[in-house]
Design brief:
The complex is a heterodimer. Chain A has helices at residues 7-26, 34-50, 56-71, 84-94, 99-112, 118-137, 143-155, 161-175, 177-188, 194-212, 215-234, 239-255, 261-264, 266-270, 278-301. Chain A is an all-alpha fold. Chain B starts with a helix and ends in a 6-residue tail after the last helix. Chain B is 73% helix and 0% strand.
Amino acid sequence: MSGGLTLELFFIVSGGFIGLVAIHVGLNPGHPRRWGSAAFWLMLAVVMGAGKHLPHELTGWLVLAMGALVAMRQVAHPVFADDSAKREIGAGQLGNRLLAPILLVPAVAIFGSFVAGPQVALGIGCLMGVAAALWLTRDAPPAPAKEGGRLLELLGETVILPQSLAALGGIFAVAGAGEEVAKLVAAVLPVANPLAAVVAYCAGMALFTILLGNAFAAFPVMTLGVGLPFIVEAHGGNPAVMGALGMLSGYCGTLVTPMAANFNIVPVRLLELKSDYAVIRAQAPFAAAIWIFNVVVMAVCVYRF
Amino acid sequence: MIKLIGILLVAVGFGFRMNALVVVLMAGIATGLAAGMDLREVVTLLGKLFVDNRGLVLPIVLMLPVVGLLEKHGLRERVATLMRQAAAATAGRIFWVYQALRGGLSVLGISLGSHAGMVRPLLAPMAESAANDKLAGLPAEAAASERGELKDQARETIRAHAAASENVGNFFSDDILVAVGALLLIKGFFDAAEVPVTLGAIQLWSLPTAAWVLLVGWWRYRALDRRLALGGKRK
């Protein structure tokens, strides 16, 4: 972290940006859910920008208040004017230069990550991207916030889903829900048979990932509850084979669960798809084919190497 | 068993297609209460975990102003024009190349893309434009829909596969070479459990799946191209 550039600074920047969106929504009398949406974005701006300094209990209540606004359908976005003629003109005039800022972001993020942390580098990349885009398009300085706000409103409450899911995973861990699931799997499936243990472990990884939305959370639970006691200790399997393919089986669960919001639900909103399950539907055949492959490779190799 | 009430709530809530955020927050509170915490403790824990995980959405939020501004000035239209000049491009081939590239860089520990930074501004318009071109090449289809524009359902399918190629490319090759995330988690777990495992062995046994995923991609994207050639209809 050089020159005082810390991750916290980028949280404040993002909080400021979300705050501007809240003000923009509040000043728009034509907004379909003006006050509910403005309140939602304002609370998120506070939590993102100042979360480190707020008492955690206050943050918790703010998050629940955001959830209540969503439950009462008070968060929405207006219909945005579609000026395709103007976009065609811009595309013609600026040509391939339009691509430069968008490619600048990952370039700065990749090379910057050798100097600063990867997230800080990405933050710097995004700020440089905005500067480059403004310089290129000669647009007014408020334009990035306004256009970014349009996309943020399209995302809506989906934008806090990944954090809420991570919080749920954390509460599950504190409550010890994982151990219960592992016990259940071991009790229900015939893990005394070496091959059945492989299938139970891979299925458990996928299922638990589907429930939690995160293979990293499923891995210690399933491996401790099913993998180590049965595949490794009882049947003498190779832990490296089991661990690698077990984790990859978990990823197959990630492909088909709405709980993995930042992979499967956020893009639905970003790409303006009609069905919340469109991405999951496209990924389901991938998940099935890859999961079966993992099980077969593990079944053939885990007791042999 | 009562601790599993949260998992049950999530399953029922998603089953009835209730709002995901509302379901998740309710499940969190219910699980905490079931485990014997009082309400203020659960809310405090929720707040703490929410703040700890702010980093999850930072890349999405910070990317939006760049993408929004460039879109206003015709980024997606420009990408579409570029694709019209590439005769061999189909939606499926673009996705396969992207998935391979994303996976290849991921092997090196480099995270190239994201849904906000790559898929929406670049990948989806590229594929839509390429598919549009192929549709326009079919006389019957071109007549059937104005200016050969993609039908809604075909566009939805293409965009969903764009997101899929980002996810699949991202997931399955991250524990091969550079020790990041998953690899360290597996190694750390076995170390803690005092099971002797080397990083090299975990990396080796991650290779077959990474190769298989490329084959699966080839199969799925070819199926997508075929479906699009039939005018977006399901077989």
